[in-house]
Amino acid sequence: MTETTAGFCEKCIAESTDESSGSYREGLFGHEFKGEARKCPACSSHVAVLWKQFLGFPVKPVGCYRYKMTGVNFGGTNFLSRRVPDDAELIGKTRSGGILTMIVIIAIVGALIYFGRK
Ligand SMILES: [Zn+2]
What we know:
With 118 residues, this protein is of the alpha+beta class. Helix content is 30%, strand content 36%. It is built from two helices and four strands; from the N terminus they run H-E-E-E-E-H.
């Protein structure tokens, strides 16, 4: 069992490749996995899109991965990932989700400035 196959069931390994996203920098200027599709009942992994983001806004999709969280520690999230073919529908969905998040953030910041002046 290699590092990339650990934790995934045979079905999920079969539909994905050994290519892992590796570790990535999380945060507003880093990368983030967005979306959740085709959740697997056997190994509880799901398909997510890895986005390159700027100020929390998704800029460019890096690719789709079968993603499985293995734990959370002080350094961030531990996860396993295996590349799957790009899912255009999921990429579109997570992109609009990012825009929605952006609108909400702008609205909150705007409200804070507005009420802060009173
Ligand atoms: Zn599975």
